[in-house]
Design goal:
Elements (H helix, E strand, L loop, with lengths): L1 E2 L5 E8 L7 H17 L5 E3 L19 H12 L6 E10 L2 E10 L2 E7 L23 E4 L2 E7 L6 H9 L4 E6 L7 H16 L3 E5 L1 E4 L2 E4 L3 E3 L5 E4 L6 E8 L5 E2 L9 H20 L3 E5 L4 H14 L4 E5 L7 H14 L2 E4 L3 H11 L10 H22 L1 E3 L5 H6 L20 H17 L8 H5 L19 H13 L4 H6 L4 H13 L1 H5 L29
Parallel strand pairs: 1-7, 2-3, 3-4, 8-9, 9-10, 17-18, 17-20, 18-19
Antiparallel strand pairs: 2-15, 4-5, 5-6, 7-8, 10-13, 11-12, 13-14, 15-16
Helix pairs in contact: 1-2, 5-6, 5-11, 6-7, 6-11, 8-9, 13-15
């Protein structure tokens, strides 16, 4: 079906929105409100929504619910009541041969076109083959004299679907997406989609979702490319909004006033963590967040992110000192809490640890002190934090980083207690860099450092024993993080890593720690993924196995 008009240009609004997975009525209401806004205020002819916008992405096993089809059909009927603007949106569509990841085009109550995604990703964090059947064939519809092709997300990373649309007569391509963030992903998308535009001589409108969903962060960054691959519109990352482009019907040239700057590495990571935390807390209905503030760098960065995400009024910090807690740690924690204006309290754990020790004294008779006594300190702190969480309705934030989670340098039911681990995919070296970056932003705004400089300068320590330092048990963090990156994100073997110049004994020790700590990671809180391979959906190793290091 086509919509003919003497239009010389078509105005599209790319709806880079934050949806709640599973909230089909709420997502539908949001789409309807934005469609009316695009029509009446922005004077748009069409509005483009992201992949699976009706359900949110990824809906996972909600797609298996028996009421899914009925709920989706009811939502589509509501969307059909919108008049005077064309809607392009994503939905799960049940067809005779199975469920499809689909895109529909509707206007004035009529369905103009339907498309089913061809390339179903089944790698990294994606498992679409579990739910969907792949589509075939191109879909092209006509709007105001222009023939427009449809593709969905992964389709654009392969030449076939876009080429099929071109061969079917498409003069412009729309690609709707739910593409999650990792460092450098925005530039990757521009490169891949730019190649597609150039090879097919097709202008492309790329609309991506924004928001946090469990461990995934969707960064938005929607854009429009000329047929030459030149960027005609770049929407900001990590921010919801409508972004307008005008496409000349005769020349297919795209014009737009939206030209956002892509953030650098540290800014993009920090913004991703802020967005992930804000959405997890808000969408889950927590009143605020709570964390143990130790005076160390991990908890300092977590506190800064929490305040930027939620505001200081929704953040509580608790210092829980013991005999080995240095005065400098107490002072630095109090100073940061004061700078940020969060609710701060100090709850000593000496009496708790002594009570546990006395209770266990008969059981432990004749046995020397070891890690057990250190873990009792961490677990006493976990008990306090969870009690406050239960009473106040605040989510506990574990403060461990990726380096620690990789090698098991964390205590089950202790410092691992909590619901959302903000730094779970952030290596220790990156933690230092992010603190420096955040302080630089504060200084540029004429404000005091967010993280006290002394916290950054001090050697990291768990302070569970006298004069304890992390590097007493672990290699220096720059070396450790690079070994971990090669092993976890690049799947390099011990042999490969040693051949790259790392000490053999150190490599074998680190890899063994990673392998034997899988049981801890399975019990750890979910946390936002910022790397190409985090701990969660895209790294699934058996807890019990006989694989030998070195292969």
């Amino acid at each position: 079906m086509s919509l003919q008009s003497p239009h010389t240009s078509i105005r599209f609004a790319l709806a880079q929105l934050d949806f709640l997975v599973g909230d089909i009525p709420g997502n539908t209401a949001l789409m309807m409100a934005q469609a009316v806004h695009a029509r009446d205020e922005l004077k748009a002819d069409a509005i483009i929504f992201p992949e699976l916008s009706l359900t949110g992405y990824p809906p996972e096993d909600l797609l298996l619910r028996p009421s899914l089809e009925r709920r989706v059909q009811a939502a589509v009927e509501q969307l059909k009541t919108i008049q005077g603007i064309t809607l392009v949106f994503g939905l799960p569509e049940q067809r005779e041969n199975g469920l499809h990841n689909a895109a529909w085009v509707i206007r004035d109550g009529q369905c103009l076109a339907r498309y089913a995604k061809h390339q179903l990703p089944n790698h990294e964090v994606f498992d679409e083959l579990r739910y969907f059947v792949a589509g075939t064939g191109a879909t092209v519809f006509e709007l105001h004299g222009m023939r427009i092709g449809l593709t969905i997300c992964e389709d654009i990373w392969h030449s076939g679907p876009a080429r099929a649309a071109k061969e079917a007569g498409a003069e412009l391509l729309i690609n709707i997406n739910a593409s999650p963030f990792h460092v450098g992903k925005a530039a990757e998308r521009l490169g891949v989609v730019g190649e597609r535009a150039c090879e097919l001589d097709l202008p492309i409108l790329y609309c991506n979702v924004v928001g946090g969903q469990d461990e995934l962060v969707f960064d938005g960054g929607s854009f429009a490319l000329q047929a030459s691959g030149e960027v005609a519109m770049q929407a900001p990352l990590f921010s919801a909004g409508l972004h307008v482009v005008d496409v000349d019907v005769a020349t297919r040239h795209i014009s737009s006033s939206t030209q956002a700057r892509l953030p650098d590495r540290h800014e993009s990571i920090y913004q991703a963590l802020v967005l992930a935390l804000r959405d997890y807390v808000t969408k889950s209905g927590f009143k605020g967040v709570l964390l143990g503030l130790s005076g160390g760098i991990d908890s300092a960065l977590t506190l800064a992110i929490a305040c930027d995400a939620l505001g200081a009024s929704r953040v509580r910090a608790v210092m829980m000192p013991y005999h080995y807690t240095a005065d400098i740690s107490r002072n630095d924690a109090a100073e940061q809490a004061t700078r940020l204006g969060v609710h701060y309290s100090s709850l000593p754990i000496v009496a708790m640890v002594e009570a546990f020790t006395n209770t266990l004294s008969e059981t432990f008779a004749g046995l020397g002190a070891d890690k057990t006594e250190e873990n009792l300190q961490a677990r006493s702190r976990g008990v306090l934090l969870m009690a406050i969480s239960n009473k106040l309705g605040y989510l506990v934030l574990p403060t461990g980083n990726k380096s620690e989670m990789s090698v098991g340098y964390a205590t089950l039911y202790g410092d691992m207690a909590g619901g959302f681990a903000v730094l779970k995919d952030v290596p220790k070296v990156e933690v230092f860099e992010l603190c420096r970056w955040r302080n630089a932003q504060a200084r540029a705004a004429g404000e005091a450092d967010i993280v006290p400089q002394r916290v950054i300068d001090r050697p990291p320590s768990a302070e569970l024993a006298p004069d304890q330092k992390d590097e007493d048990s672990l290699p220096p963090y720059p070396a450790l993080d690079e070994i971990l990156r090669r092993y976890i994100e690049c799947d390099e073997s011990a042999h490969d890593i040693i051949a790259a110049g790392f000490d053999a004994e150190q490599v074998n020790h680190v890899l063994r720690l990673v392998d034997i700590s899988e049981h801890k990671r399975r019990q750890s809180a979910v946390g936002p993924r910022i790397s190409r391979r985090g701990f969660g959906k895209d790294r699934r190793y058996p807890i019990v196995n006989g694989w030998k290091i070195g292969d």
